[in-house]
Each structure stands twice: as structure tokens, then as C-alpha cells.
Amino acid sequence: MYIIENNLEVVEYENLLLPISIKIRELIQYKNKRALCHWHDDIEIIKILSGSMNFYINGEIFHLIKDDILIVNSKQIHYGYEYNHDDCKFICLMVNPSVLKINKAMYQEYVIPIIENNGLLAWCLKNNEGKQLDRILFALIDWQEKSCRAKEWKLLSLVYDLWYQIYNLIDNDKNLNLIKDDTFDDVNIFKQMVIFIYQNYKKAIILQDIAKSGNVGKSKCYELFKRYVNKTPNDFVNLYRLEKSKILLKNEDLSITEVALECGFNSGSYYAELFKKYNGCTPRNFRKYKK
């Protein structure tokens, strides 16, 4: 999980001059073939190259197979995970909306109505509906790998072409799968509780604390975590602590117990037990493997 700033995930871009990121990834690169729950300002585009996976967005689950394209709108809670133990190879493109701000009037006319529309969570393109996007995605990968000077202008032109295609898909295709969000308030409450965990994971946290951060009761808190991440609040806290601990394990000056306490666990033994349960190895062996 990346660091959270201003209540959003910080996305790492390959090019310091242009806030976009495009990579070919495999689900097997993620522990248990499952990404952590997250959200960010960026529009995210997933293109399945081989295999399949499920993709969760604000309580909706998309089953994606080869050649499918999924466009995830800005600030939506989402993550991908395995389907039927299948692996999946996919393109992941992240585009920060600031890239589209060169002309303020056009940004207001053609970007804001989409990225700030709570009823537009995602668009799923199947049966080769996204052929024009295919062309742009592969061109972006090609140009990202080039070492020529000023390639950012070419990348920028491709991103603008991409947005033109996306905008017209939304505006013109009445059969496009648009997800309507009827639970926007619940999503915001859930985000507030997750942010509380991210900001306080080093401290002792109980269910009542998490619920209070979202101004809801304990039963509502439990319900929202089960709905949006299919985990209990306590499990979510512990999994986040475990992910943060992996960063500290790289520092060999810290003992395993010190790592555990720094990440909010009350003992080294309990930390080691949970770490092995979810990662298949002890913290000590993980440290040796990552040397």
C-alpha cells in the first residue's frame, strides 16, 4: 500500500514530468493474488492480456477475461483479485486528471462532469468494444519505453486521444455498462474509517474507535467493512499493519519485536503468528529472503 496523503493513495509515476503510469503486471505479483483496497485521484484503465480476474469497485464485482477493458473512475474504492485460482496478465494505466487541465474551459466541459459524477463508477468494455483504446494503450507502452528526448509530448497526445475515446463512449453508447452509485454516503463513511486506520495503525485500535471515526455504530461499521472489503474491521487493521511491517523488516537494525510494536501489534509472538498465517513464512524468513 502506498502512503496516504490528503486522504488519497500516492501513485508513483515513472516519468517525473508527466503524471501517468503504464505497466504490464501479473496478478501473481500480489500476495495471494489480491491487491489491497485503495483509491486515488487517477483514472485507472485495466486491459486483460491473458487469464482472468475479478475486480471490485464500490461493492460491485466485475469478472474480467482476455481482451476486456475496465475503466475505473477517479476516487473509487477498488482492488483486483484472483478468480478460480487463475493467474492474470494485464495492462494497468493510471492517468492523473491534472494531465487533462491544459485548457481550463475544456476541462470543465469534458472532464469534470465525468470524474466528479458520483453515479459513474466504472465502464466495462467486452467483445472487442475497446479496439480504439487497445491501439492507444499499446502505443503508450511503446513510447514509455523509448529513451528519446521530449517523448512526453507524444505521451500527452496519446492520453488526450484516449480521453476523447472514453468521453465519446460514455456520451454516445447507450448500451455501455454504467454503474449507478446509490450508496455514495456509505462509501464516504467507509473511506473515513479506512483513513482513520491508515493514520492510527501504530496505536491500539478497537472496533468502537473505527466506528466513531465514521460517525456510525459498531454494527454499521462491521457491515460496511464486510460489504466493501469482505473483511472484519479487525482483520483489515491487522492486514494493513502486516503490509507496513514488511517495509520495516528491510531495516535489520530493528528486531522483530521492535517491528511488531512499531506497527501496532502488542507482542512479537502474536505478530509472528499473524505474519506466518497471511504470508506463509515468518518475519525472520521474510527478512532473509528480501536481502
UniProtKB/TrEMBL annotation:
SUPFAM superfamilies per the UniProt record, alphabetical: Homeodomain-like, RmlC-like cupins
InterPro entries: AraC-bd, Homeodomain-like_sf, HTH_AraC, HTH_AraC-typ_CS, RmlC-like_jellyroll, RmlC_Cupin_sf, Tscrpt_reg_AraC-type_HTH
Gene Ontology MF terms: DNA-binding transcription factor activity; sequence-specific DNA binding
UniProt keyword annotation of Iron present: no
Xref: Pfam families: AraC_binding, HTH_18
Annotated keywords: DNA-binding, Transcription, Transcription regulation
Domain spans labelled HTH araC/xylS-type: 191-289
PANTHER family per the UniProt record, alphabetical: ARAC-FAMILY TRANSCRIPTIONAL REGULATOR, HTH-TYPE TRANSCRIPTIONAL REGULATOR EXSA
This protein's name: AraC family transcriptional regulator
Taxonomic source organism: Megamonas rupellensis
